[in-house]
Input
Amino acid sequence: MADTSFQTDEFLKLLTDALRAGPGSPAWHDALARLRTEGLADTDEYRLLCTVREHLETGRDYRSIRAGAGFTRKLFDAVEIEASRPARRISTATLIAMAGGAVLVTVVVIVGMLLLGGSGTSRDVPDSLRRAVMAQEILASDFASADARWREFGSLPVKPQGGLRAAIARDLRATEYHGGGLITANSIAPGQMFEASAQIHVERPTENLLVQLFVTDDPSFPKDPQAANPKHELVCWIQAGQVKVGLPDDSVRTIQDRIRDNARAQLRLRMDKQFVIVEGDGKEIYAGRHGLAEDRPRFVGLRFQAKAYERTEAIAVQSVRILKP
Amino acid sequence: MQRRADKPPSPRPPAKPKADEVADLQPTPLGRHSDEELMLRTQKSDRQAFSLLYERYSASVLSYLYRMLGNLDDVESIAQEVFLRAFRFAPTYRYPQKFSTWLFTITRNLAINYSRRRKRSPVRNVTELNLEGVEMSSDPYQVATRSTDDVEKQEEIARVLKALDDLPTDQKEVIVLGVFQDLSYAQMEEITGTKAVTLRSRMFHGLKRLARTISGGPAALGPGPAPPPDPKP
Output
């Protein structure tokens, strides 16, 4: 049985979910019901699979061990030593290796900046933004149902259905993108440092449907089909499996690595009054000035843009979190 | 039921705050914080928070290592290193990544490195190892006998558990992580760097191989009928 059939065959997905979750789980009940409906419950293959999974459940204690007092004491003695250690001593060999590495990194960075035509703005980004621990939740959504904390906009409808998805008309044939999405109903103060991140499931990377995470200082959108307001937005997006960010000078930066089929990706914007750090899948793609007005409140938004019909499963925003320090 | 008994459900169902409403972490008793919140405190060198994480996860990590490696001597030293590294490298943890995924990534990487580097030493006396529950859980026949009164079932359970060791490592790993450690395919994907679809396939084929031990079909996993349980003190 090819691996791909576990991706495309709904029954195999249901079955493997059940085999992982085990007896008593909702997935288990669903799978058994499906096996009975299809008259497969009594076939040897599936009966044995269920039996062996039940046996594993019964035998969960197998090789289950716990830490004894000696183990715990030994560990926390080591933790104490670790915590009280001011700094790790570095050997001469390590120092030489580090110096060599630093030279190499410097050269690579300089060459990279020259190639990218970078303005060196990342140097201006304050450490306080880079190092802030964003621990307090302002808003979190998994789009399981309609949510009053978000306001819908644009001509392309979106729907909460196992994440946020675009509902694209089957007859959509356009020469330009049509856009629509959600924007936060409440604003964030312009001086407030915050981080917005979106977990996105990309079933099949496509040029026809893209998804954007953006921050705007103007929550009104012009009546153009794209439902975008570029002069007032800092926006990053996934298009054809690549993460991109639009910069204040109207240029676009792209992460060359492509997102695989049926993969999850994360877009993350970390912002203060003047600066932003943009990451796609944990890789920094831009750090520098964001170009938004310094005195206007911020709104976080998600936008889909489509120029041809795509199945609603193609891209979904699974969750969004907005955090502050 | 080691993990379910020892570790409170994690993460707690998150309370949905309203917009601009921020949960204050201070007044909540430490034990009620999620793993991720405790990790944030550990990043600020809060050793009490770290010890709670240790309490929640030590049995899971130890059992995972024992099931994967089968060598108690390695298990103890690797598990020590896992938690020491979790403390040392706490600043590299990025909230709100799931703590269990982060910890099991460390555990798996260390287990792989140790397996490559070290020659296995003979199993030492259990009392020297500072680990508990070894006697009770190491023998599949004892585990099976404690689980059910049905003798025929006991035999089958023991054969299935024994056969786990003979599975190819990649199939064994997905069963240990998914079935014994309760990790989702998405978490396993993150930990192992293997696509979820491949993990599903390994789960399916791994369990199918185990099923052969009770099917009476071609015995691909060792000798036919299992020997009677060892009479252990």
